[in-house]
Amino acid sequence: MQLLDGKSLSQKIEHNVQIETKDLRERTGIVPGLAVILVGQDPASAAYVNMKKKACDRVGFYSVTHEMPEDISQDAIENTITMMNNNPNINGILIQLPLPSQIDTTKILELVDPSKDVDGFHPYNVGRLTTGLDGFVPCTPLGVMELLSEYNIDIQGKNCVVVGASNIVGKPMAALLLNANATVEICHIFTDDLKKHTLNADILLVGVGVINLIKEDMVKEDIIIIDIGINRAESGKLVGDVDFENVSKKCSYITPVPGGVGPMTIAMLLSNTLKATKIYAATKESK
Ligand code: NAD
Question: Among 9, 56, 148, 220, whose Cα sits 20 to 30 Å from the Cα of 262?
């Protein structure tokens, strides 16, 4: 069994982003800028935003967080997004989800300029992903693809089973695997007999949010497992969706939690923001 080390790969990617950022700044004077909207006091959301801000600082990006109270109005968030859409110093806009129940999240995500949509949640970018065109791809599944590629894991023709079908994890994960010529199954809360499906997997990708959902008897020998779940165990430890201790014995490769997919998500956010900035710089140069 070999661990897929997302921590060290993310550091390598960060280092490259840092070098490219310096080069871009010296050539054009442009510094990548990321704006984050954080609504409410959820400690997990605040912790994620803080990690993203620190990562921006490490690679030399400009970053700003718009903190808003839980009872904020739809109009106030929309006005802030419009302001950031029009701000040339902002190349990436990220809305930390979930938003409170009074907010129409779809409308908010649709307002983000698709060329600044570094989370890849705008329907324009979702459409480009499903048709196999270049665009912005959600950071977590993009990070998974980078990790598989780093370890030269062949995807073409493989049976890939994705458990979890959210718009930010499972669905874009499945689209990327399909674009890479895998045979893809998607399972979710209404899937009847999950085990029947997971036993088919050459590569199993799990992003659900249920501790120990995947057990030893649900996978075949030599399977490759990507555990995207992040859960807080009773002990306070961070764990994934896979019973790591017992399942890992059957794996050829598996991601640890923490240190697997999590750090890759942040690295991809940096990489997407740099990509948006480079496209902006190129259009500015050509004018
Ligand atoms: P979500 O709640 O939006 O979606 C969960 C999905 O799992 C749904 O499609 C649901 O149908 C499915 N599901 C729920 N219970 C199930 C069950 N018993 N069997 C099969 N499918 C089931 O969650 P999300 O935002 O997609 O996040 C999923 C997990 O991934 C969470 O643990 C989250 O913390 C984690 N996550 C990790 C990263 C990262 O960087 N590693 C990023 C985003 C989310």
Answer: 220
